[in-house]
Specification:
two-stranded antiparallel sheet, four-stranded antiparallel β-sheet
């Protein structure tokens, strides 16, 4: 699992947990990215699931 910002910088996750609850998939992880970083768009990529774009 990784995040890619609008400048192409990658943020790797060391691992994640995933559970199914109330017919929803819940994924929990940590990235070395702070809310103080000036990032407006991110792409979240999970190799076994897919990808999604996130905006501030």
């Amino acid at each position: 699992m990784k995040l890619i910002d609008e400048n192409g910088k990658e943020y790797q996750s060391s691992g994640y947990s995933m559970e199914l609850k109330d017919n929803k998939t819940i994924i929990a992880t940590n990235f070395s990215l702070s809310s103080y970083d000036n990032v407006n768009k991110l792409k979240l990529i999970i190799s076994s699931i897919g990808e999604v774009e996130l905006e501030k």
